[in-house]
Batch of 3 targets.
Target 1
Amino acid sequence: MSLPPWCPTYSSRKTGINGEEVYCICKRPDNGDLMVGCDGCDDWFHFKCLKIPEAYRRLVYSFHCPYCEAGITGPASRGANDVPKTIWKRKCRLNDCYKPCQSNSKYCSDEHGEEYMRIMLAKVEVPGLQHDAQLQLFKDMANYHKNDSKTEQFQMLGNEEFIYDDPKDQDSLYAGIVRDDKRLMELQDNVKELGDKTIPTKKSELGMLSKYLDWLEEINVKLASQRDLNPGEDDTKGNSTTTRGKNKKKSNKAKAKQRNYICGYNSDFQTPCSVDEFVTEYSQDIPQLKGVCVKVRCSKHSGWATMQMEEREQQLSSLESYQTRLLLLMKMRKEQLHIQYYEELLRRKE
């Protein structure tokens, strides 16, 4: 993971010009502004510098700075398998409240749960609707989970079932307002295309590249053994073929380089034959074998493994982010349509 665009390059400097201790990405002394401690590197960071609203101060569960999340400092920089991420407590569902939720609840307090429900009711309030009808609607919502205890019923108030899930009995009114909505159908089609085809295809490409790099590494290890070389000796000027241990991430594997290793670039990343067959036919006098570049220190394809791996990882990350945005848009659209549906339903019952 790379640093955010707004985050400066890491500096290990701990003191300022006058010898005072400095902190954060800004490398300034503690000036009294709100700060948060990093659980990865033990440094302190200003909320303002990290672009975190101060209202989120109670929602931090486990914080890791941008450098730890990028693997520059913290556990990942010391060989840990997983790159840490900041973990947030769940925020109270009331928009203006930034307190964490109570256990097994979506609210920080019972009072905010009731307030949330009043706001939800206001969304479906119909001008002219009698007060008794509105009270009945509230009772219906409160009794939505008939088999739960009263406490559990309250905790489930405002749950997604009521406003997002399709009703069990779908009539022509529901079809006309919700099910046949063109925008909703378009979003559903896009989400399905991403989930069923685009994202799986990109994951397959990543898997194919990883498999090819494993094949290439095995070849290079055998060729190095034949040359009586130490296959663990590093050379940062070598090619981008990988030397990978079981506990290292794929992108890190692709960056490891080996002295006198063949380039290994292949345009389609398909393994053309077995490792033993390739090693047997290999010769230093030819530039290419079975579509694979076998030059040592190849300037034309320098760094290809790293670039190909990172490019596909970034593409996959972008697709997954796009999928998340589409799902959110679909959820919001469905909420709007369901509100319209329930409003119309109430009108017809008057």
Target 2
Amino acid sequence: MILLGILAVTALPRFIGPSSFSAYSVRSEFISALRQLQQQAISNTDQCYRMDVTPAGYQSEASTDCVNNFVAVNPRLPWADNTRVLRVYSFNGVGTDNFVVNVSQNGTIQFGANQSCNGCSINVVAGDKVNIGISTEGYIYAR
């Protein structure tokens, strides 16, 4: 009975509303997309990869010169219902919903041009707020 009570308090709220479920599913989808991009960057060292994130959705891009000639690898994927907002909070705590995630050839993550990621967090807001963590070494995980 105690176990059932613990499950009801921890697991049930994730599935009660559509907005709660959406936040968790959007987080899983975006983690998968970032990990796939990271694998591409490690496997294809002749190109640079990045994820362009806007309020409308996200899109992976590649470039051979690694400066500004990035070409879309796949079409822009919209956030569910266009209500899902993904924000990254920089070192000063300021958030934005329009940013670029650069993946280096050794798999580390940078935001923008030279903002290396030391324990960065990406927040998915869709009713609930859930987090994506990125370690210094480039490991991407759900928080």
Target 3
Amino acid sequence: MTAFGSAPSRFPDDDGPRPGSAARLSPLRELQLLESSQAGDPDALRELLVSYQHRVYAVCLRMVRNPETARDLTQDTLVKLIEGLGSYTGRAKLSTWIIRIAMNCCLSHLRKQKLRIHKSLDDAVGLTGMPRSGTITDPREPGPGTRVQRDEDQDLLLRALDGLDPEMRAILVLRDMQGLEYQQIGDVLDAPVGTVKSRLFRARSALRDAIERIGGREFDASGPDH
């Protein structure tokens, strides 16, 4: 509990956010809620938090692939958001600022779990929690003849993603899952655009190499802007 209120206690289901589960606010409505929240209006704060909690949860789930841990990290993010809202100046978009808080929480958690993260990729298969629809790029709905191959590809991708360093995983989540622009990613990771592009290239290369190493065949994990 803070001067601004408390974070919502209800979280999305374990399979992640559903389309339409929390409609994004219009820029005008978001600004109104932000100003009211900073003025101490608890109802405005709650509406603002609810509008972002599904997106925060999605980021956390894709980073840690464990629903319980993702819920904890979502709670941590929302608490930090509440604590820092009074000092938010608007230099970055509110959504970018919130995702940065979420990503910092996730990276801090993963660094503390470095030993687990650096286990063999076979051990990483046991980490569950990401829905099968959560891939580096949004797959088109396959026909019956391609469903098995798609599932195999996703299994390879998730195993490889688990084996990447947290920083590499972060940039792939931000660009290829959340669809952030390079400048937004730079704001989240506190890095210039050129660095973002080079890190993304290295992360995609590392992901592709890991997938090929596990699966024994070529796999295109490059994304649309390679």
